[in-house]
Amino acid sequence: MNFNRHSNLEGQHAFLGASKYHWINYTDDKIADSYVRFLATQKGTVLHAFAAQCILLGQKLPKSQKTLNMYVNDAIGYKMTPEQILYYSPNCFGTTDAICFRNNFLRIHDLKTGEIDAHIEQLEVYAALFCLEYHIRPADIEMELRIYQHDQILYHKPTVEDILPIMDRIITADKVINKIREEEG
């Protein structure tokens, strides 16, 4: 059998693909809802890339109470770095939407384009990763974490009591995973 070549599709996944087969049991309404969420996720990816380019170029957006505009303009105003990876180990790392650290003040901003409400814990994990990667004690710095979503800004000033347990959990969980890897290797 000479199979058809679909080289233009290599590495891609169809929305109605075999690896995510649960859709075969969905109603038409559920398929439509799932596809709308899928499109929203794709739009969010494009908006994040657009925001990162604006920040890198210092291109402010018109001043308004719109989520994207507030996020981009604040990140530029604070001279933040977009899409920065924070790394502890191969088991634990993540990419902040925007971050800066100056004068012992850590600032992390997160752009949320979806409808599901964001959770500040994600930004607390980023703060813990920052402290671990750069060997900074949370007690020695101040922090402000922001979530931009639904045309609003959620502000959070985490304490040592918020960040230190997450740092400890990262270290412990990483050891657990490494032990399993050693036993399997």
Automatic annotation (TrEMBL):
Domain of life of the organism encoding this protein: Bacteria
Name of the protein described by the UniProt record: DUF2800 domain-containing protein
Organism for this UniProt entry = Dysosmobacter welbionis
